[in-house]
Structure to design on (431 residues):
RNA sequence: UCCUCAGUAGCUCAACGGUAGAGCAACCGGCUGUUAACCGGUAGGUUGCAGGUUCGAAUCCUGCCUGGGGAGCCA
């Protein structure tokens, strides 16, 4: 008899098949019982009628605890009452391993309890849906980049010094020297872009900030493309295209998962309909002041400011040309207005905050050296980075997408901790 | 680091100065189409920890611990 996956069950209508998985739930009504079986690819209801079953097997079925691993044989039957469209008329059940006193019930649980049991929480339909969407988001991002000639170049995770100096880094011992967990692969991608033209890195990044909000993880994944001969305008166009491609792909492949998450799908469809909004930093400040926010030209946006700006639109909005003083040392000044840099943040709608930060980079040797000094960065440590301007410097740009924030927005979640299999949060590193 | 809210049964919560309770889970029983099934029963507690006020504290006060949400910072 063929062992099949629940995902493919429709191909076996009327046939007898074997299924291997776990018992998700059981409902019984005296002489009939329903076993909900999951195998990682889906959920299916198995039906057993006492009068038509082997008494020993019927009794076994009635006694198997939730989340025990089982192997079952049964006949696939079309049934309109099933959300899947099919049921399995069970004929045999083999208990592989009994799960006694499974901690997670089908009722509500608190966040603390669920996070302590993240290794089991992942088994629930909602978490499975999110993990599958995460998989699709990653694949769509990479497919888009690969199809446009980008090359994946892996950045190191152990780094000798702060990339940008601002954020708190995790320190570790590197054979007697200090080393730090990477907070960005960008500087290395600039080197790679001078070798391969268009590149990206995709990996975990670490921030030792004592942040605990629904928008922060200590360890998160970031995709960072970097492109030689690409300037500010084209940089934004590329960001818009890749974001739209990912959303279109998720809408195509995950309607059911999005519905399970109770995502308002029309909000995502709207994003595809028109170009992303654009707003200058200057205009943003003017708007915020008109709304009574306490903010001056030269200040960075706080979270309430960002939300107010994002709420002006029902799609994402680029905020661009920030004061150089509040941005990273490597960002290129606008030639028309050197006090602002050719940088943009992409703010997601619906209060999901910044999902992309990008900029054109300084390609002039003297200016970059000057900025390194102004920021009190160790010149010695940046010699290799300066070499990129010494030897065949070109205009280049790049950006970073925060994977978990992007997924949180796509899925319409209230907290990004559900978008990563094992979230690292402030004071929480178990399991 | 700061602000704020909360810790009571395995889980989710109620009791707000006068004998600690419910739903779910567990266990026993009933039910032939259930969808977090339902119905009846049994068992389950050092109320986060330490101190204080009071005739009497889960409840009021002080300190500590743990967690949630937020600020700052960021993706």
């Amino acid at each position: 008899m063929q062992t099949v996956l629940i995902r493919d069950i429709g191909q076996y209508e009327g046939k007898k098949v074997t299924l291997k998985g776990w018992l998700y739930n059981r409902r019984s009504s005296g002489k009939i019982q329903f076993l909900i079986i999951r195998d990682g690819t889906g959920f299916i209801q198995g039906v057993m009628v006492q009068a038509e079953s082997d008494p020993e097997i019927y009794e076994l079925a009635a006694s198997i605890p939730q989340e025990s691993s089982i192997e079952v044989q049964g006949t696939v039957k079309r049934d309109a009452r099933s959300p899947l469209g099919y049921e399995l008329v069970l004929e045999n059940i083999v208990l592989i391993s009994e799960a006694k006193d499974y901690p997670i019930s089908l009722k509500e649980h608190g966040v603390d309890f669920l996070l302590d049991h993240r290794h089991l929480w992942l088994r629930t339909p909602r978490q499975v849906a999110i993990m599958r969407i995460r998989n699709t988001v990653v694949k769509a991002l990479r497919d888009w980049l690969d199809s446009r000639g980008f090359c994946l170049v892996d950045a190191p995770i152990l780094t000798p010094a702060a990339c940008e100096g601002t954020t708190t880094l995790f320190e570790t011992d590197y054979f007697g020297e200090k080393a730090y967990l990477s907070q960005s692969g960008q500087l290395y991608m600039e080197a790679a872009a001078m070798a391969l033209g268009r590149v990206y890195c995709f990996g975990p990044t670490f921030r030792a900030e004592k942040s605990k909000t629904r928008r922060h993880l200590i360890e998160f994944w970031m995709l960072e493309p970097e492109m030689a001969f690409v300037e500010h305008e084209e940089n934004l166009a590329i960001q818009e295209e890749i974001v739209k491609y990912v959303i279109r792909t998720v809408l195509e492949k995950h309607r059911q998962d999005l519905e399970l998450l109770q995502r308002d799908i029309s909000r995502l469809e709207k994003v595809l309909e028109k170009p992303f909004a654009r707003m200058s930093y200057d205009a943003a400040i003017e708007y915020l002041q008109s709304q009574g926010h306490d903010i001056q030209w030269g200040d960075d946006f706080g979270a309430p400011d960002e939300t107010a700006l994002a709420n002006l639109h029902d799609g994402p909005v680029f905020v661009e040309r920030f004061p150089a003083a509040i941005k990273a040392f490597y960002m290129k000044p606008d030639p028309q207005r050197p006090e602002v840099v050719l940088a943009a943040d992409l703010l997601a709608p619906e209060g999901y905050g910044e999902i992309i930060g990008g900029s054109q980079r300084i390609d002039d040797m003297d200016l970059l050296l000057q900025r390194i000094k102004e920021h009190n960065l160790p010149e010695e440590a940046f010699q290799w980075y300066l070499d990129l301007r010494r030897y065949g410097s070109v205009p280049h740009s790049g950006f970073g997408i925060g994977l978990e924030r992007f997924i949180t927005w796509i899925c319409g979640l209230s907290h990004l901790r559900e978008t990563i299999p094992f979230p690292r949060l402030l004071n929480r590193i178990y399991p």
